[in-house]
Design goal:
15 helices; 67% helix; cell membrane; transmembrane helix
Length: 343
């Protein structure tokens, strides 16, 4: 969020304030009030009911995420990168579903692992699976799209990690991807940092002042983050349902066949929609005619990467590794969409 504490009363950065989700929500509701005042109440009630329904999941997700951060549980992930390569791939894909990293946050972690000499196959398995699912994302997805969709995404997250890891292992066996890292000083993506790769979790975090402070900080910051983005997502969903013709959505990403799924995956990857915002929007699109397979492809491709994450990855690894990362992400999203559609 914009920092309004600097130079109070004098030099507020209005440009930053106007870019916040709250400002967008107000602008959208004002537009409805001016252009279609009779529908304003319907839009607000729709968004409020949807947000209230998801509220129980938001609270549990925020508590869980704050607990994981306060205890330092993410350091357990580093243990997956020890031992034989096949074991590393399996554990990296599984642990990816527990690590609370987005497509940006995972990059410093990946850089640290590669710098320490972890095999690219295992790193790729974690790289692809980690942004797709974590316990909070699972709950948010279930609240918006149902448990079938949430569990399906979790299964595909691990499967995509395994798929990417073993594909890269096979390519490395043929001489590909030697020395994957570029010479670099830093990775600029988000104001995120990776976890330390040593130490152990402190499950009773409340016994330490610093960890209690970390819990409070994470609870407040993640709570506000989820609240503002989900509020915006549900307002957008209400507008989609009310104003976007169903046949338009159906023509683009509806109907039978693979083409709608491919389109959804290609559109989803550059779109900067995190895994907390995407489910409500997809619920609205599904109501308008988007197929379940296209929705799954969009969600997976969008979680694997985004334009900010792509920029950071490009600065981190050599072009062949970058191409493999994007190719595996899009290809895996399409395959997941097709399989989910069939099921």
């Amino acid at each position: 969020m914009a920092d309004l504490t600097q130079n109070p009363g004098r030099n507020w950065k209005w440009a930053d304030v106007l870019k916040t989700p709250w400002a967008v929500i107000v602008a959208l509701l004002l537009a409805v009030a001016v252009l279609d005042p009779g529908n304003l109440g319907t839009v607000i009630v729709f968004a409020a009911k949807a947000l209230a329904h998801t509220g129980q999941y938001i609270l549990f997700a925020v508590l869980l995420l704050a607990y994981l951060k306060a205890t330092g549980a993410e350091v357990m992930v580093a243990r997956a990168f020890e031992g034989r390569e096949v074991r590393m791939i399996l554990l990296a894909a599984l642990f990816g579903g527990l690590a609370p990293f987005c497509s940006c946050e995972v990059i410093p972690f990946i850089a640290g692992l590669l710098a320490l000499g972890a095999p690219l196959s295992a790193v790729m398995a974690f790289w692809l699976s980690s942004p797709l699912i974590d316990p909070p994302t699972l709950l948010i997805t279930a609240g918006a799209l149902g448990w079938d969709f949430a569990i399906g995404k979790a299964v595909f997250a691990v499967a995509l990690g395994l798929f990417g890891g073993f594909v890269v292992k096979g390519l490395i066996g043929r001489g590909a991807f030697a020395d994957p890292l570029k010479p670099r000083k830093s990775t600029g993506c988000c104001s995120c940092s990776g976890p330390k790769l040593d130490g152990k979790p402190h499950w009773r975090f409340w016994q330490e002042t610093d960890r209690r402070a970390r819990f409070r900080e994470e609870f407040i910051s993640n709570g506000l983050f989820l609240l503002k983005w989900l509020a915006l997502a549900y307002v957008l969903e209400a507008l989609l349902v009310d104003y976007v013709p169903a046949d338009l959505i159906a023509r683009a990403v509806g109907g039978e066949g693979v083409l709608p799924i491919v389109i959804a995956a290609l559109v989803g990857m550059p779109a900067y929609l995190n895994s907390y915002v995407a489910p409500p929007l997809l619920a609205g699109l599904i109501d308008q005619g988007m197929t379940a397979g296209a929705a799954m492809a969009f969600m997976i491709a969008g979680a694997v990467s985004s334009i900010p994450a792509m920029a950071a990855v490009w600065s981190l690894v050599k072009p062949r590794v970058f191409a493999a990362y994007l190719g595996l992400g899009i290809g895996g999203a399409i395959i997941a969409g097709v399989l989910f559609q069939l099921v």
